[in-house]
Structures
1.
Amino acid sequence: MAQYLTEELTSTLENNIGTVLDVREQLLKSTGVDLLSNDTLSNIMIQKVVRKYDQHFEVNMARNGEDARTESIFDMELKTATLQKHKRGDSYPVATFQFHAMGDLEHGSYLFAVRDKTTLKIVSIYDIRISNNVKTVESRLQELSDDWYEKAQITKTKYDVISVNETFLKENIQLHMKEIDGVKVYRDY
């Protein structure tokens, strides 16, 4: 759906963008990290929560395919979904985490996060590290990838997105929930 702004709203954004860009530039110069780059903001917010229960967790700020690591896991895949709350009530729709069907689907662990679209705050995290649970996610992704590939041979599609959602995680992996700083953290360990 298209969204066009009034002149007043356009002016408000134009008048404030300089402040945002100035703060971004100061942070880039002092840290070497672009806060407005893809995934950077959510990854920093995820790291802040995860470090409350795993002090060795750290996200990779380089965009080179390696998302995060911890003490014994060096290939953690991070996926984030940004959701708007339902108009009625205080809940969110089921989050869907996207992957490329033809991409690298096998990782040492998976960490899925849900952010609020309005505040950008993390509202839930699914931290999957136990080997058989990682295999459960990988098997589902491979099955979806194979299905996509089969259909792509017929339709010649280039859009190669497959997804795993919260329902799949909750129904197929034994998770334990603990709230940390207002974030529902679901872990399998």
2.
Amino acid sequence: MKTKKLFGLTLLFIAATLLTACGGGSGTTNKTPLEITKELCSYFEKGDYETCLKKQMEYLIDDGNKLTGKQLQDFIQDAVKLFTEESDKGGGYKKIEIKEDEENNDSIAYIHMFCQYNDDSYFENWYTFVKTERGWRIKNVGNR
């Protein structure tokens, strides 16, 4: 099996979190970290990267800074282009696996996402969630 990691996609997930983390969604959610990650990955697996990124922003911690307007639109457009190119290059998705970490507790949770393409290249991310008064929120995406 070819084990080429697609660092560009991992870095893009990290950038998406860092650049938009500050604008976390309004409202509350009763969803668990695993449910949130499965929702995001369902869009990703279908190739609906724009919805995936926008939904991810809804679940991010709000720390007061965020991309808006044209900057946000440009970022999403560039991210969608990169995700599409990587998927096409890898021949589409073979499988996406999502697993909870055994260290999860009532205030922090780690979810591992592994995405393998049909050419056996892959990338993986860890979602770090924290429990807030508005429910579970994404604190970080990237390596654990």
